[in-house]
Design goal:
By secondary structure, the protein is an alpha+beta fold.
Length: 223
């Protein structure tokens, strides 16, 4: 019995050793293959050209209708080559809803070098109440605040087009809603105070008159 148990234990030990050496050899081959691929990938790195990204920001996220709001646009060249004939168009803040009072809405740049950024600011009068901006989801998957077009080569006739997102949402509040929200209601408080005094003073005067009559009657009876 003891000899049979030792034989089984020896077979299991040999099987474990064979399995262990097999796994070590597989891992070693995988490491060699990964190293080879990384070397090949490094040798085959190619230029990706120019690539522009951007963002639009508001100086305030709440403005009253016919009030001023300053909008800042920043464009980044995250590529490794220059971008040429860059044009930016805000497709959300249209002339029907916003009027430019400081700065120009036709924003353009002759060249944006790799790794650099450019900025422009425009002040608008908000003429229409509403919400203007991208939701958190659309700002990631489908930005629609403004459009950037640019050429990857100086003499190229074709242009790339990208859309940028808005950092935050601009709320333009109508005048009536603003007045209701911020009005101190002075006339209402005066009317309320007057009515409160009347409701308090009239019963008090009646009670005092009744007490005075009772006192007079009590004095007459004692006499």
């Amino acid at each position: 019995m003891m000899g049979g148990r030792f034989r089984v234990a020896g077979i299991l030990l040999i099987a474990c050793l064979v399995l262990l050496f097999g796994m070590i050899s597989v891992f070693a081959q995988d490491e060699i293959e990964v190293d080879d691929v990384s070397v090949d990938d490094t040798e085959e790195v190619k230029s990706h050209g120019s690539f522009l990204a951007g963002v639009r920001e508001f100086d305030s996220n709440l403005v009253v209708e016919m009030g001023n709001v300053t909008v800042s646009y920043t464009i980044y060249n995250i590529g490794d080559q220059s971008a040429f004939e860059v044009e930016l168009e805000d497709i959300m803040l249209t002339s029907e809803d916003f009027e430019a009072v400081d700065g120009v809405t036709s924003i353009s740049f002759d060249e944006i070098t790799p790794g650099s950024s450019v900025s422009r600011s425009v002040t608008f009068i908000a003429k229409s109440a509403g919400y203007y901006g991208d939701s958190p989801k659309s700002s990631v998957y489908k930005p629609s605040a403004a459009k950037i077009s640019y050429a990857t080569e100086r003499t190229s006739d074709t242009k790339r087009v990208h859309y940028i997102a808005s950092k935050g949402i601009l709320v333009v509040e109508d005048v009536e809603s603003f007045k209701k929200r911020t009005d101190k209601h002075i006339l209402d408080w005066i009317a309320f105070s007057t009515l409160s005094l009347l409701f308090t003073a009239v019963p008090y005067a009646i009670s005092q008159s009744s007490l005075s009559k009772l006192d007079k009657r009590a004095v007459r009876k004692t006499k």
